[in-house]
Design brief:
heterodimer; A: globular; B: ABC transporter involved in vitamin B12 uptake, BtuC; 2 strands
Chain lengths: 347, 305
């Protein structure tokens, strides 16, 4: 219990400190920090319109964050969410195009299974290389991002190109009837619900199942895990697979809910922002949900910041960088603040 | 016959590209090598590279002197390196995560302040035309070599000598091999790592200035395509040996030049696939260079723990 309090206190403290630094940064650009923060709030959560914008951006972030968070629980730092999202979206689009005349329920299921499965295998390969060959998983997952994007570019300007898409080369459409619809009359699509459900499910797996516990043991001390006879290889590989599949699902949603076809929107940076969300949430799938909303909100307000204060779109990246560094710096305070520590039995 | 000339020009373009595209790799990989020799991984060098490219370009444009730009790029890299080192001084803070954060932060800052410099053109770094004897434009282009390349080539043996024989170099190696041994010798581990990360970051910044001030030769947001990150893999491939870093950088430059070289002779098929060549090469090399036991020859001892 006290541990949860400690996490919340330190995370909030880090966020407050980053707000101060961001304010200082805004000040140097000649803007008024309070006005920019007000715009940030209005652009992210100020109206139903901006809420919709935030929610649409938060949906893929929840899923790509899992791609870093789940492997992190077994001790791997995987930053391949971007590539996994591309692989998931691309394979899903190919599936959708191939069977687009089938009933839309079947098309959707097939896209999710193929997209999630392929992306899962993509990150599983990273885990396998790490586990069996000691290849640094951070770098290999990053290289795979570039390879996935190259394959995507190769296919959308080549074999799979729809000649009708000149300015933004894309694949053929998966068909209007196979798209994910919006919730009610909002512009928020059901993909958000997928994201929420997957995060909740992963939280349940991580916190309430034997597998989740075994994963935490493996992440805590792999030699101890081996000693007590845990199937370490299986745990590592499955965690990577689940993380990759989640990011792949983000790609499927991007295809099926927004674009209707695969193109460069698949590598628009959701995978990289997801890394930040995962670290903010300290790799807890449940905490990913509010942080994905926060990050989605910051990104959603980028347009308003540009219009109202003439701040370039990179401003959002600066904010994210400051928050990320502050959160990491707060790590050094864990276990250091006296009144947040449980009373020791031996004093 | 025509086909023959095509193949030759591809080969020459790849060799020229090895030098032209490989130069930033030399600086970044030597910088990463130095940092890792002291027992720390800086994954944020991609950020240093982009930051160096931006400051180098901006200063060159504002002052009219590209060399001042290179200096500014190196200094900006040093500042980022110091920041990384300070954040990592605490044991509970993961250096890889800090690297990712630094990369995000530095890229954001560079794009933010670089917005104003996308349009204007800054004075470039000079190059020496070794191919002027030839009438062939392909050979001329391939042998037009930038001064920074020679600096990089000289830097590799200099760093090897520094690490092998000097007092400071030995300090870096001891800290990287065993922090316990360094402690027992009364060394200030944090200071050695701070200086190595700072110097490494500065080298990466210089590598970045090459990108914006020579090849491709202008500042834009898509300037770097992960060279800073590939450098980390490159150092593993080079087994933490500065001379090997130099050779590996040239190999990577050649791989990266393959796609454009083929395109220049009219082979457009698979342009994007050939663009992936350096990444695939890195991955293959990493798999080949790793071992199931976890230790690799030449690896600083601090990483084994």
């Amino acid at each position: 219990m006290l541990k949860t309090v400690e996490i919340w206190c330190l995370s909030l403290g880090a966020l407050l400190l980053s707000m101060l630094l961001i304010a200082a940064f805004i000040f140097t650009t000649g803007n008024s920090p309070s006005e920019v923060f007000h715009s940030l709030y209005r652009g992210a959560f100020g109206s139903w319109f901006s809420w919709q914008n935030t929610l649409v951006r938060a949906a893929p972030l929840m899923l790509t964050a899992l791609c870093t968070a789940l492997p992190a629980r077994v001790g791997l730092i995987v930053i391949g969410g971007e590539g996994a999202m591309v692989v998931g979206g691309l394979t899903a689009a190919i599936t959708g195009i191939a069977i687009q005349d089938a009933p839309s329920f079947m098309v959707m299921s097939a896209m999710m299974i193929v997209g999630g499965g392929c992306a899962g295998l993509w990150i599983l390969a990273v885990g396998a290389l790490r586990h069996y060959r000691n290849v640094n998983e951070t770098i290999s997952s990053l290289l795979l991002n570039y390879i996935a994007i190259a394959v995507l570019n190769f296919l959308v300007v080549g074999v799979l190109k729809d000649p009708a898409t000149l300015n933004n080369p894309s694949t053929y459409s998966i068909g209007e009837k196979n798209m994910i619809t919006s919730i009610g009359d909002s512009s928020v699509h059901w993909g958000l619900v997928y994201g929420l459900v997957v995060c909740l499910a992963m939280w349940f797996v991580a916190r309430r199942t034997t597998f989740g516990f075994a994963a935490d043991v493996t992440g805590g001390n792999i030699r101890a895990a081996r000693l007590v006879g845990l199937p370490v290889a299986k745990i590592v590989l499955l965690s990577c697979f689940l993380g990759g599949a989640a990011a792949g699902l983000a790609g499927v949603i991007e295809i099926a809910a927004i674009q209707g076809r695969a193109n460069s929107s698949l590598n628009a940076g959701y995978g990289y922002a997801g890394i930040l969300v995962a670290f903010l949430a300290r790799h807890n799938p449940l905490a990913i949900i509010p942080y994905a909303l926060l990050l989605g909100g910051i990104q959603a307000s980028g347009g308003l910041l540009q219009r109202a204060h003439d701040l370039p779109d990179a401003t959002v990246a600066v904010f994210q960088g400051i928050i990320f560094m502050m959160i990491l710096s707060s790590e050094m305070l864990y276990g250091r603040i006296k009144f947040l520590q449980p009373k020791s039995m031996i004093s | 016959m025509e086909n023959d000339i095509g193949l030759w020009s591809v080969l020459i373009a790849v060799l020229g590209g090895a030098i032209r595209v490989g130069t930033p790799f030399i600086f970044v990989s030597l910088g990463e090598c130095l940092t890792e020799k002291a027992g720390r991984i800086n994954l944020g060098l991609e950020g240093n590279l982009i930051m160096g490219a931006m400051t180098g370009y901006a200063v060159s444009y504002l002052s009219g002197s590209p060399w001042l730009g290179v200096l500014a790029a190196g200094s900006s890299g040093c500042v980022l390196g110091i920041l990384h080192a300070l954040l990592c001084q605490n044991k509970q803070v993961n250096d890889i995560a800090v690297g990712i954060a630094m990369m995000l932060f530095a890229t954001g800052i560079a794009f933010f302040y670089g917005k104003a410099f996308i349009q204007p053109s800054a004075p470039h770094l000079p190059s020496i035309g070794f191919g002027n004897w030839s009438s062939s434009p392909v050979i001329k282009a391939a042998l037009d070599i930038n001064v920074l390349f020679f600096l990089g080539v000289a830097l590799a043996p200099a760093m090897a000598w520094f690490l092998r024989t000097t007092r400071w170099g030995n300090a870096v190696r001891v800290v990287g091999e065993s922090s316990d041994a360094a402690l027992s010798l009364g060394m200030n581990i944090n200071r050695v790592r701070l200086l190595s990360t700072m110097a490494g970051g500065g080298l990466a910044g210089i590598g970045g200035s090459y990108l914006s001030l020579y090849y491709p030769g202008s500042w834009s947001e898509g300037l770097s395509s992960g060279q800073g990150l590939m450098a980390v893999a490159l150092v593993i491939f080079a087994r933490w040996n500065p001379m090997n870093c130099l050779y590996a950088s040239l190999l990577f430059g050649g791989a990266a030049a393959l796609g454009p070289a083929l395109q220049s002779v009219g082979i457009n098929w698979g342009y994007y696939l050939f663009n992936a060549a350096p990444y695939v090469l890195t991955l293959v090399i990493m798999i080949a260079a790793s071992s199931a036991k976890g230790t690799v020859r030449g690896m600083p001892g601090e990483f084994v723990k």
